[in-house]
Fold this protein.
Amino acid sequence: MSIELSKGPFDVSMADIGKLSADDAVELFHQLLVEEAKRTANPVTAINVPKAITTADGGIDAEIELISGTLIPGGLLRNGNASYQIKTGSFSASGLSDIKSLVVMVNKNRTLV
């Protein structure tokens, strides 16, 4: 038995995301981060999404700096500092090495996930 959930006007499917341009994907993620900050009573000023997606900055598209020790229920936000890279287009994530190349970047000062 399968249950089909009806789609609400604000639901975003993987097919919808796949149709976005790189700029639109970054904008959507920015909006999601802002809503998550509001939901968890964290300051939206802690979110930095410069939207300069073609700048050589190590691939960081969004950063959040929350006070260490902040209690955050599950979601997009993490305790302390977090950096995000938004991927669009086709890429492989079928093996561990593919996933590591997509989500882990080692920098002299920090590891980005």
